[in-house]
Amino acid sequence: MNDVHAHGCGGHTVSSAASARDVPGATYTCPMHPEIIRDEPGDCPICGMALEPMAVTAEQPPNPELIDFTRRFWIGLVLGLPVFLLEMTAHVGIPVHDVIDAQTSQWIQGALATPVVLWCGLPFFQRGWRSIVTWRLNMFTLIAIGTGAAYVYSVFALFFP
């Protein structure tokens, strides 16, 4: 068996030794589409969700997708919290724009929000794109179109106020 063949979320390759979810001879299925059965982990061709092992064990092996999404969540939170504070504090009476002018605040927010949308949201965009290409529209489609449109509009408004 190939030592580097189990694919985690976002196209990152996870070695078989690190991923106990890739068990030789195991079968995997989609939690939403049980008719999808594969011999190796991956994504459901219908909805894009990660395939789960069909065999139930007492001990849960490490989940590379959960590890990846947890890392993306915490990085997104660290970058997104200042964006939230820069924008919302003025609405509750805290004079943040006395310290940082509004235009500088917008550029800081844009710089911090860009990696959140493009890197933290990458798995959603990838799965949303796949759902459009295969014409199997689902929640990933909605998330990708909604956040993508909002981000493009915000970038346009930032450069052309």
* Principal-axis shape: elongated
Count of helical regions: 4
Average of the residue pLDDT scores: 84
State Rg: 20 Å
**In whole angstroms, how far apart are the ends?**
55 Å
Query: Count of DSSP E strands?
Result: 5
Major β-sheet annotation:
3 strands, antiparallel
Poorly predicted regions:
1-20
Task: Please identify the structural class as seen in this structure.
Answer: mainly alpha
Helices and strands, in order, run as EEEEEHHHH
Oligomeric description of these chains: single chain
Portion of residues in beta strands equals 5-15%
Helix content estimate: 40-55%
Spatially, the strands of the biggest sheet line up as 4-3-5
Would you write up a description of this structure?
By secondary structure, the chain is mainly alpha-helical. It contains four helices and five strands; from the N terminus they run E-E-E-E-E-H-H-H-H. It has helices at 64-88, 102-120, 122-133, 139-159, and strands at residues 6-7, 13-14, 28-29, 37-38, 52-53. A three-stranded antiparallel β-sheet has the order 4-3-5, with no helix packed on it. Strands 1-2 form a two-stranded antiparallel ribbon. A hairpin with a 7-residue loop joins strand 3 (28-29) and strand 4 (37-38). Helix 1 runs antiparallel to helix 2 (102-120), helix 2 runs antiparallel to helix 4 and helix 3 packs across helix 4. The longest helix is centred in the middle third of the chain and has 25 residues, at 64-88. It starts with 5 loop residues before the first strand and ends with a helix.
